[in-house]
Structure formats: structure tokens, C-alpha cells
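Quick illustration, no need to memorize.
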Amino acid sequence: MALVLIASERFADHETPPGHPERSERAEIMDIVADDWRQRGGDVVAPRSATLEQIARVHDMDYVRSIAALAGSSRALDPDTYTSPESHEIALLAAGAAVDAVDHVLGAPGHRALALVRPPGHHAERDRAMGFCLYNNIAVAAAHARASGVGRVAIVDVDVHHGNGTQHMFEADPDVLYVSLHQFPFYPGTGEATEVGRDEGAGFTVNVPLAAGAVDDDYRLVFTDIVLPVLHEFRPAVVLVSAGFDAHERDPLGGMRLTTGAFGAMFRELRRVADTCCDGRLAAVVEGGYDGRALSEALRSVVHALGDDGSGDDAGWLPPGPVPPARGRAAVAEVRKALAGFWRF
């Protein structure tokens, strides 16, 4: 099978306070999904820790040292983000899993990888932790791909929250395209359509802000009208995905109404882009998703989309409803206005 899962029971060792949504049980759910994939004959491999060189491509070394200095202790870094005695080591393992995912797809054209990790990463800035995130896993992966000789990297972020850290790390880089679909206005307050990048990277940040309550039809529309045309025009050498599952209708933190099947449908679309543009090279890294049942079911939907033989159709999206998707249409109009002259959509 062309899909490899990268997983480790050690991801449960990053501990958060009782009642925190980013809890160890999330790792246990990912372990069950990985075990099921293994029993079906799929490949599951253990990650290696990221090196300091790999981390330092996107994070300031003073910040890395400050997190390393907390090893063996439990601290609150902000009202949402905590460390426990093993958190630094586990965060290096999560970033390393993202690097391993990139190495896997670069070494085997037509192969895909899904890193089942925690803590998540896309909120982590160059010099600070935030939003449950210590190191920016997907940014470490993208920088590793570039250091490995990849010319153009596309990052697609489907988490319900905007990936402020990822955007800021690459907003001046024309070789890293960042596309984010997210609830707006919402935490962390960034991600307006007018945030399009800066300097030589102007136009290579594509924010698709969707109002709370968006459903499958809204996401399908913005995929069709914005995400897919931009990706095909950019023609990346590898597609990376920040795989958040908190836009699910059952998630306690988000305000979206995506069905389980929508996640498989989005990943099937992204797989087709990768097949067309870059010999199928697609690597995804888990971000959010805080309802246990929704996380389990949505992960399985994604594993099916990435691990089947590619003969599946568009099954996954709910059928279009009788009312046009108002939130999706509004988002498409905003993005087209903000990025007029940059992309042909």
C-alpha cells in the first residue's frame, strides 16, 4: 500500500492539565487508527526525533533552549499551552515525525504519509509557543523539504483555526505557498483574506476565511473555486497538509458543521492535485480535533482516502443542498478581491 502512517505511543506522554482539550487520549485514538491500518497490511513506522538543526530552520534557538530548559517540569506557557516533564522530548518527536513524512514521500514517488502526532504545531511562532503548540511541525517539515532540494512546497491547512505561526514563517517566501481554510473571526485572530504575504512572497499566502456554521457545501465550493485552481497553478513539488479535524460538526471548540466524510473528500481532492503536480507526493500532519469519536472517524476517512487504490469517486461530501452555500460564496468573493492579479481563478 502506498500510504505509510507514522505513529508512536510516546505521544501520550505530553501531558496537559485535567479537562484540557488537547489531552493524552487523543494520542490513544491515533494509536488505535494506526493499529487498524497495520492489521490491514499497511505500513506503520515509528518516528525519529527532529534534530536541533531541523528545528532551528524555523524557530529561534533562544526559544528552543527555553523549551528544552523546561524538561522535567510542568509549566503554563500561556493560558492554553502547557508543558509536562517529557514535553520537550515529545515535541521533538512530533516535529521529527513530520520530517520523516517528508522523507518518505520524497524517497518514493506515488507514496503518501500521515504523521499521527501531538502536540499540534501550526500556532507556534518562531519565538513562542501558543495555542497548544510548542514547535511548528508542518513548518519544520516544509523547511526540511526545501533543504532537501524541493523547489516549491504547498501547505494546505484545514484546521478550524488559522495557522498564524505557519503563515508568519513563510509569508515572505515565494517558494512556499500557504493556503488556509478556517473559521473567521476566531482564535487566534489572524487569517483575513487581505493577509496575502509580503515582499517577494506577496500572493503566496491564501487565506480563506469562512463564517461559523459552514457545512460541506461551503468547503466544497471554496475547494473548487479557490484551493484547487491555486494549487494547480502553483504546481508544487510536494503537498503538505496541516490536518486539523476540529471543523467537524461534533467538535467542542469549533463552530463549523463538516461531516466525517468531508475530511476524506478534501484529502481525496488534495491527493489528485499531488498525483497531477508532483508524482503523488503528499504528506499530512495531524493538528487539532478534540471530540474523540469525531477524531477517530475523520482520521479513518482520511486514511481511506489516502490509502485506497485511487479508484474512488467523490463520495464523502454530502449532496449539495437546495440553498446556495452563502458562507462559501462570501469567502470566495473575499479571496478573489484580495488576490486579484496573483492567481487565475
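The chain has one domain: 3-338.
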